[in-house]
Design goal:
about 90 residues, alpha+beta, 3-stranded antiparallel beta sheet, 4 helices
Length: about 90
């Protein structure tokens, strides 16, 4: 996990590394990694947000992996990329 947080990797490198190791992370560990990424990726951790990430194989794997970790509910193609649907805001 430290390599994803501490090393100066490009965003595509971070995503690829996360995708190869996501099964080793708990939901909380994955959230602590993604929250430090640049927008729109970090937006996937915020309740009620629906960020769009660029099209690409690694980003599609990322969306699938975030679903498996229950960080997002689902993803679907959008005209601008891959839209991530995360959990809604908690009602009071």
């Amino acid at each position: 996990m430290e390599i994803l947080l501490d090393k100066p990797l490009s965003m595509p490198e971070k995503i690829q590394l996360f995708n190869t190791r996501f099964h080793q992370f708990s939901r909380e560990e994955a959230l602590s990694i993604i929250v430090k990424w640049l927008s729109p990726y970090s937006e996937a951790t915020k309740p009620g947000k629906r960020p769009v990430i660029p099209f690409g194989t690694e980003n599609q794997y990322l969306a699938n992996n975030l679903e498996k970790l229950k960080i997002i509910k689902r993803s679907e193609p959008d005209k601008h990329g891959i839209r991530l649907f995360n959990v809604g805001k908690t009602k009071i």
